[in-house]
Amino acid sequence: MITLTHYLVLAAVVFSIGLAGALTRRNTIMVLIGIEMMLNAANINLVAFWRYLGPQTNMSGQMFAVFSIAVAGAEAAVGLALLIAVYRHFKNVSIEEISSLKG
Amino acid sequence: MEYVFYILAIWTVGSGLLAVLQRNLVHCALALIAFFAGIAGIFFTLRAEFLGAVQIIVYVGAIAVLILFAIMLTRHVTGEETISPFSGHAIWGWLASAGVLAMLIYSLYDQLFIMSGPPSQATVLDIGNAMMRRYAVPFEVISLLLTAALVGAVVIALEEPREKK
Description:
The complex is a heterodimer of chains A (103) and B (165). Chain A is mostly helical and 103 residues long. Chain A is 76% helix and 0% strand. In chain A, helix 1 packs antiparallel against helix 2 and helix 2 (28-53) runs antiparallel to helix 3. The radius of gyration of chain A is 17 Å and the shape is elongated. Chain B has 165 residues and is mainly alpha-helical. Chain B folds into 2 domains: 1-79, Four Helix Bundle (Hemerythrin (Met), subunit A), CATH 1.20.120; 122-158. Chain B has helices at residues 2-21, 25-45, 49-74, 90-108, 124-132, 136-157. Chain B is extended, with a radius of gyration of 21 Å. The N and C termini of chain B lie far apart (69 Å). The mean pLDDT of chain B is 85. At the A-B interface, helix 1, helix 2 and helix 3 of A face helix 1, helix 2, helix 3, helix 4 and helix 5 of B.
């Protein structure tokens, strides 16, 4: 029997992997990938709570996940556009090389 | 039906680890596609078929391609990275995420979730009704946000105008 706890543990593991990726990698693209993984872990939690604890007629959990996916899509598009602009300016996307606010 | 969850969980965690650990950025992006597909499978096991389809369309279809394009535009097509994810002070990042994982697991320990009834089910009809009635205003707001993000991404990524000499 798969319970809610199984899904929550899976989401916790996925979140930690994403956090490790965002913290340890030097490349900005990898940081964005880590953030996407963390957002996915949160979506698993939303849907799992909707499935196991939500009232029958309430769609809030799935709606939250749908909106979260839309916001994550917008975030990815803007983030990668920023990354391309930064690359054009610094000719580099390593987070250690991009250290000056004034170009 | 139980082993489906375990297979998908191992698939998701394994491909997620691959996506984080590999040195070659293109390989990372490919592992990330597998990870997104695993998450879609998890949604299917939760009987959220609509979300699983959305996950495949948005993440596997759009965001993965966007990331691959960003890798191609900012590095050589091969995407080789010289620095290993295990070098230097990366250990602190691993320690921090291990701490977060321990904290999350500890908060789940001995936690009993009482189900109030049978698991929720939803058809696409229910989702459409909710989206167009109760959640109509957030729906409009999110469409505005997506339009703003579209325009903003284009403006940010536009080539800087050459300075007049």
